[in-house]
Amino acid sequence: MRSEGGKRPSDSAVEARYLLMPQQANPYGTAFGGAIVAWIDMVASMAAQKHCGKEVVTAGIDSLTFKEPIQVGDHVVLKACVNYVSRTSMEVGVQVTREEPVSGKSAVATTAHLTFVALGENKRPCPVEPIVPETEDEKRRYENAKVRVKARKELLKQMKREV
Ligand SMILES: CC(C)(COP(=O)(O)OP(=O)(O)OC[C@H]1O[C@@H](n2cnc3c(N)ncnc32)[C@H](O)[C@@H]1OP(=O)(O)O)[C@@H](O)C(=O)NCCC(=O)NCCS
Fold this sequence. Notes:
about 35% strand, Thiol Ester Dehydrase, Chain A, binds coenzyme A, five-stranded antiparallel sheet, about 160 residues, 3 helices
């Protein structure tokens, strides 16, 4: 579905649920960070791709925060949505919640922001249609992401100068 002037974040939001198995754990029986990052990258890329309908690549992952350990046997719920769209790039926010299936207790375990770039048929960055936030939450995420995108671009410029 399209809104006037672009797509809504809810049009491309993605939710996934996994069971944390021993093969995704570290030696202490809690989630191995890299396994969670792989899931985050996966759901976030699907949200970006649903938004733009093109091939997308991960350009960067930042503000990745592990707030709570996830235990083997927990349900892991990932929610991804496009926060902001620039010219060819999209910022996607992901929230990871751990749920204890027996007690029903849940808590936000991890959050992250990822940048995806849309590629055209020549495999070069290509323009993406705008995002139109509608709800109060979507508008807040959009405004916060706008500030982060500006800061990220400044940082990238500075990093390029230093190389
Ligand atoms: C991401 C990539 C396509 C950008 O190519 P590029 O030649 O630097 O492109 P540009 O300089 O024209 O930048 C294109 C957009 O990417 C953004 N971008 C580039 N590098 C970025 C980074 N490290 N973090 C966040 N955004 C980035 C730019 O800000 C720009 O955004 P805008 O068009 O919305 O303003 C290129 O660096 C690449 O292919 N990287 C490897 C991706 C990959 O293999 N990912 C892992 C597996 S999916």
